[in-house]
Amino acid sequence: MSDDARPPHDEGRKRSLASFWTAFLLGGSLSLLAGAWGLKTLFAPRAGHVRQDRAALDEFIASLPPGDAVPDVESPRVAKSLHLFIAKPLGLKSGAAIDPLASPQLFSALFPGYPDSMRRDEGLWQDYFSREFGSKVASDRLGAAAPDGAAAFYSWIGCVDVFRRYGADVILLGASDTAQGVAPDLLAKLLRAGGVPALANARVLSCETPTMLPEVARDTAALLAGTGRRARWVVYGYSPGNSFTRAPEYDDILADKRATMLAYRENLTLGPLAAWDRPVVFPWTWNDLLPLRTDDSQVMLNLLQEDRAERSTRRAVKFDLRIPTEVAQSSQTLAAFTKGRRLPHPFLHDLADAGCGEFSDAARRLEDALEAMRGLGAATLLFVDPTTGLELSTAPACYARTERAMVARAPAAVVDAADAAEMGFDPTDFTYESPPESRRYWLNTTHVNKRGTEKLTRRVAADILRGEGR
User: Which pairing describes strands 170-174 and 204-206: parallel, antiparallel, or unpaired?
Assistant: First the structure.
């Protein structure tokens, strides 16, 4: 690789790795690590599925442009310490280390519109990679190498580090529905072709996080506004299943997100002590959340679910429905197969069968989030994430109707309250073959595949350009 392509932070990576192991040992965490590894065998998937997963991952790596993947790195915690990201084909439990800081083209795909000087900013990435990882965002470039698309794992709270130093023209907020549905690199390309000079080289910044409740969106926007910088657009995807109602588990998730934001604020004032931030000292938790080529892909997720089950009345979460091969081939057969089926949703159980009065505070919570976004000096695009009918199958009949009517009245510059069918989505936009070429098909109730990502990204771009024309 040429000197121009590789940023001057290899030594920083080595120091980061050394400091990680020092902190790890000094922290006395070896017993915790051993305990976590001991639990992994409880959740190991069957060997045949693992072999299929690995074969599909190898094919994905081989399909990436030269220099994107770092195939010899097989642990996310090591990847993180080396300032590497993780790319994951949708439908697989495994991922591959990628190095956007050594590839200008890959960097531009994950951080479109940003200058090459940002790629070489060692101070920025030292901060960024000290944050918690776990969020993922769709990528048009990475998705070209996978049948159903691909996403890159990144730091939700680390987007504030980027914004503080380099700003943004378009900020993306929302839950995983939004992050998997809007590809920043494709959005930047569509805006560039839209003929608006101010968006000809738009910096598009992903700040989504799984289960971004309205309060989390509000607090994230406030944290971004606190940097003193301003954006041109904030795009907020309103998640139908996560945002409108208030479930018992709501407080736990909100507390987790706020703890992350509080840690970020405190980290800004710790100075040399910042090395003791939990994601740096204990990055093995992230390693269990997304193993690269191990047999323990569900360990941490299962542990987290069991922990929440002890603290709440949460029922089983079901986002994926296994579907027969012959059913997966058309929207008609999928619609017939899913008709009348009901899948439990973590926030949509035990709701009243009649009346939507219990959702009356949803409008206030949404307005509070939009008010915080206006603090960024930006126009706001509000849309409802497309979903299948299965996501709302256990909600009262009034739920979707009342939710969309509320969104349509929201005080945003551009409001898109269309449902999935009105947006042009059908069930095939939510299906996956997992692993690829396995003839095992799944229907995800909330997250779109590559076709769906292109549809939603194009609609978001059109909405922004429509707003620019007002």
Answer: parallel
| Other CB atoms within 10 Å distance of the CB of residue 248 | 14
Residue 369 · residue 234 · CB < 8 Å: no
> Do strands 431-433 and 379-384 pair parallel, antiparallel, or not at all (unpaired)?
unpaired
How much is the pLDDT for 327? 85
Q: Answer whether 355's CB lies under 8 Å from 398's CB.
A: yes
Gap between the Cα atoms of 149 and 146, Å rounded: 5
The neighbour count for residue 365, using CB atoms within 10 Å, is: 18
Q: How far apart are CA 290 and CA 281, in angstroms?
A: 17
Which helix (H) or strand (E) segment holds residue 50: the answer is helix 47-63
CB atoms within 10 A of CB 66: 7
Of these ranges, 28-32, 46-50, 160-164, the one predicted with the greatest mean pLDDT is: 160-164
On whether the CB atoms of residues 446 and 177 are closer than 8 A, the answer is yes
Provide long-range contacts, Cβ within 8 A and 24+ apart, for 213-217. 213/242, 213/243, 213/250, 213/253, 213/254, 213/257, 214/243, 214/362, 214/365, 214/366, 214/368, 214/369, 215/254, 215/365, 215/368, 215/369, 216/254, 216/257, 216/258, 217/173, 217/174, 217/369, 217/372, 217/373
Q: How would you classify the pairing of strands 320-323 and 441-444?
A: antiparallel
- Averaged pLDDT, 207-215: 92
Q: In whole angstroms, how far apart are CA 76 and each of 54, 156, 325, 426?
A: 16, 17, 33, 35
Global pTM reads: 0.82
Question: What's the chain's Rg over C-alpha atoms?
Answer: 21
In the numeric block, which tokens belong to residue 293?
């080529």
Q: Is the dihedral of CA 443, 447, 449, 455 positive or negative?
A: positive
Average pLDDT estimate for 324-350:
77
Tell me if 369 sits within 8 A of 223, measured CB to CB: no
Check whether 63 has a pLDDT greater than 60. yes
Closest residue by Cα to residue 50 from 444, 435, 320: 435
Q: What are 219-255's pLDDT values in tens digits?
A: 999 999 999 999 999 999 999 887 777 666 777 888 8
